[in-house]
Each structure stands twice: as C-alpha cells, then as structure tokens.
TrEMBL record:
This is DUF4283 domain-containing protein. Residues 199-246 form the Zinc knuckle CX2CX4HX4C domain. Residues 61-140 form the DUF4283 domain. It comes from Erythroxylum novogranatense. InterPro entries: At4g02000-like, DUF4283, Zn_knuckle_CX2CX4HX4C.
Amino acid sequence: MQQCLASLFSQQERKFWSAKLLLFCKMDQGLQNLSIREKEDAEFVIPTEEIQGEAINYDICLYSKLIRERVINAKAMEQMLLSFWHPMRGAYIKPLIDNNIYIIQFYHHIDLKKMLAGGPWSFNKCIMLIHQWKEGKNPMDIDFTHIDVWVQFHGLPMGFASETLARNIGNVMGTYLDYNSTFRRNSWNNYMRVRAQINVEEPLIRKKIIRKQGAEPTVITFNYERLPLICYLYGIIGHTETNCRKLLERSEEEISREWTGGISAR
C-alpha cells in the first residue's frame, strides 16, 4: 500500500508537500502562541468594591533599606527597632526583597513622626535609609541614597548662631531641614544642631570657613550624630575602612586617613 502511494508522487513532489505541511504546522503553532499572548496581555480589571481587606494608608508606610556589611536577621531587627520606637498603635517591619528592602507599616501618623524625628536608625551598625511609600512604586526603582541626620556645629563665633546660618550651611551639606529650637532665642551660643538631608554616596563635610564682612575668617567643625559606620579614608557612610572597595584601586602609599573619629558626635 505504501509503495502504491509513494508511486503516485515523484520525489520532487513529495519534498514540495512535506515543506507545505511543515509550513502549515508552524503557522498553526504561531496562531496558538498568538492566542496565548492575547490572553496574557489582556488586562483584568478588578472592581474596587470587590477588593477585600483592610485599606492601606500609604501616608504612614515607608520603604527602607540597610547599608550593610553583613547578613541581617530581619526578625531580630524588627524586635529591636520596635522596642526603641514604642509605637502606641503598633507597627511592623516586613522584608520584601533579598532581606534588604523592607516595608515599615505604622498605624498612626504620630508614631511615624516620632520615629522619623529620632533617626537616623541602625541595626547591628547597619544604617537604615528610609523612603516615603508611594502607591504603585516599584521598590527596586527607589533611589536609596539620602538620609536625614543631625549635625553639630562647633566653634561658632559669638553672635553667629542663627537660623540663616543654619539654613545656608545645611544646604551646602545637602538639604536643610531644621535646627534645634533650644538655640533659636540665644544668638550668643557658639554651638548649634542642624538637621539636614545628606547623600550617603558623597564624603561627609568636615568643616566650613565663615566670616562676617570685614572680620577675620573662622573655621567651624561638624560632628554627625548616630552614624555607626564611617570610612575614615574617604568619609563615606555605611562601611569601615577595612571594607572599603577603593582600597583595591590604590597602593598603600596613596592611602591616608583624611577623616578621623572626631567627625562622629559623642
């Protein structure tokens, strides 16, 4: 029977119809794939009234990330930080990605405000960077590069302590946020505390030269509060000099400590 069927077609005709059959099979597979893609790409809209569960108040949620040199125990971190924050309405910290990006959920804006005012926070000497939650924002796209920190100004000449000076120097450091209200009504202080948002990827500013018009210049120095790890080779937050990657790029003769432990407030 097979010999009879084969005799009906020449070898050239058999090749022709085999190629046609293969083409039809590929077209059929392509149509199936197209159908799958259409199903995958079609949006599925869920009516708002059908969404169950507690509504999230994004205004009191945060994303956070640790600048770390070691693996972190997320549960231990949550227990320790919550014991410091004492949220009256409660809070929780949930790891999202690779145990290094977290959601911090508060349940009252007063608890959130108290936590932010007391920062920066750290666990096991790993500083925590914080970013306001935005609905629909992918945490992988967040630029975790800034931190709010209190900075002490030392060596101010008498009469220099003022909000204007605090604002101007705070904006040189990064972005001025506030200064300690204890000193707002006394211009004779030679010391101030200024809160500024600084870039953790840039070296810490150690000092600033200031002067009044017609007077001699004065050098004031800065001490940063609650920063557990500082590289004293390059003034960068988040690692020690022994773990500084720039050591790999320099010879021992080129390495020098340009920052000292005095930059950390005691």
